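pinned: reference chain
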Amino acid sequence: MNKSLLTMGFIAILGFLTSPDILGFDQSHNAFDKILKQYVVVNGPQSAVRYGEIKKNPAQLNSYITELEAVTADEFSGWSEPQQIAFLINAYNALTIQLILTKYPDLKSIKDLGGFFTGPWKVKFFTLFGEKHHLDYIEHELLRVNYTEPRIHFALVCASIGCPPLITEAYTGDRLDEQLNRSMISFLRDPERNRYDKADKTLYLSSIFKWFSEDFTKVNSSVEAFVAPWITDDKTEQDLITGKKVDLEYLDYDWSLNRSN
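pinned: its structure tokens
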């Protein structure tokens, strides 16, 4: 047989074997990783999104979401727990961006979306595991129910300034623990959203800790005990916070859009 034909045949077989349909879902989330690196602007412990630029070129985002929607429930169930959590976090963040773009730039907050009786988190605008769903399905019916992992609240980004920052990389199963820890520490060490004031012995926390207190107390005796090791390096202060020997106040949540342009 002609060598060139053999070579062409080998290339065709190799292309078939390495196609997405054969390999399955890309657990590196490379497509979303590229989007985050290109359109997320980091400013210290906070970040903003170039929504205008994504809206001008939505093909990358739409293509990634198409990949997410193609995953079946059976395929998902075969993954490791870290892979599942990473998938759901990335899906939530990517879909939130897509939802913002439906009205951008004519909105000041994600709360401007949705109907009179239905908030933005109840709008069914995407398909997951073969059914139409809303963002609350991912957060409250999957992540919070199926996994004992309170650190998700430092990774899910609801397009608001009060949220934890959107990091410039996709979450992945093989790095999930390190990424969640990094996101948690960054959020807790941001004095605009969380801080311990040793002068008046008051712990100021994001309202996230009030809304989801039950998630944090599943793994610690109290919200204070959960944040103590991360919000300060001072062992004396950690003991005071853990022992609830400080006042606790929750800060107002800033729902303004985390926009860069």
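why pinned: The mean pLDDT is 93. The chain has 13 helices and seven strands.
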